[in-house]
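Exercise: predict the structure of this protein bound to adenosine-5'-diphosphate.
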Amino acid sequence: MSTNAKRRKMRVLFASSEAVPFAKTGGLGDVAGSLPRALKHAGAKAAVILPKYSTIPQEYQDRMKHVADFYVPLAWRNDYCGIEKLTLQGLDFYFVDNESYFKRDSLYGYFDDGERFAFFAKAVCEAIARVPELECDVLHCNDWQTALCPVFLREFYREVPACNNVKCVFTVHNVKFQGQYGDKMLQDVLGVDDIPAARDQLRCDADSINFMKGALCYSDWLTTVSPSYACELQMPFFGEGLDGIFRRRSNILSGILNGIDQGIWNPATDSMVPRNFSPKDMSGKAECKRALQEELGLAQDPTRPLVVSIGRLTNQKGLGLVRYAMDGLMARGVQVAVLGTGDADQEEAFSYFSNKYGNQMCARIAFDNALSHRMYAGGDLLLMPSEFEPCGLSQMIAMRYGTLPVVRETGGLRDSVQPYNKFTGEGTGFSFANMNADEMADTLLGACEIFWTDQKAWSQLQQQAMAADFSWRRAANDYMDIYHRLHPEIIRYNKRRDR
Ligand code: ADP
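Solution:
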């Protein structure tokens, strides 16, 4: 690659284990489906690469075109890899095809997940080396599933012309999931046991290795999904054992708040909700609420505040507080509707409340995208008391639909929800500071009090929440700044953003 400065598009390959609309288990899928498109608008030549899971809807699989195939070396293995391509609304998606690794019923949760995603990471590197249309300036990796890309790229592909000037950016979407495995993998799967730098930087204790730690050490730039989480990651409480590395590398760590796809999440055009509405005409929201109450078997009463909760049912999401406060909330006449799947004890607890409180509480233990749209549209409040929250998308989506979030002040929740100020009327939601069920219940019931008694303040809050800008444009420009810092020889293509 020429090192002469020239104006051309930055070529970004976005490697992710999920991307909407092909595969999603959480926020990462939304990000990988939206950010690359925003990067294109910001002047990049962006593409996405992900595994070809058999769960990808057949209509998309039928439209994929075969681009290349080769064998991927993984320690003593030499495994087949096909590269398939599908262009969707102008964005190129590439799929890594290997049925023994990706023909499964779900995305994750298998005994060989470490090997599966080590293969994926190596396949991405091999694809950059072999497939001309996948050559890139920046390989943008996400979470532990792609964390080995920077390690492999540096250790095995440095001499390959297509790879030697690729800069790696690694984004932490959730530090809780790091990809920790026994150190036998160093030799048996990764093939790096005789490379001291890789061996030492991947190791996390006497007999384990940590994929994410590898990415944190090997990447050229680190990002995470909100400014507050970037600070929190450097603290022992949030850093999950990696806080020391985040502190050491804090000079190359940025926190960039995610956006949401405002085309998909738009109450004025959303075809999955019973009635559309907009800040100018909110009448449809009342019908959405009524229809949701009917669908969930809740009393069809407009005076009952309907509190929705949509997300993984895990400890991270602060559900212990909700369980503790549930009886008190029910006693005050609040309706609660929960949509999610996750830990068995959480699923059981919410099913129990659903049985106990009949037409006042409903738990849908399912992953149901269409229902999530109807709940964002039909709710009055969205409850998200997370213990930690790297960014969180649900609260932003809720605000788009005039459903006011009640959040704990952590990570991206703190960065995206402006708490209500009763003196000025400012705010886009409600927040509380401590992991304390009474504090959460007080905040939630305080919000309900406004719902019951001050319709004007409530409507103003809804308007302010719906006007908040959570588009990807701002985030995409911040990522472009990082890419260009790593590649000063490429002059920014999008003149308007030249600095
Ligand atoms: P996380 O990435 O920690 O799971 P986020 O709030 O960042 O949480 O993103 C969660 C995304 O997944 C949101 O788009 C949310 O609507 C969606 N989601 C979570 N659980 C469900 C579910 N059970 N059904 C439908 N959508 C869900």
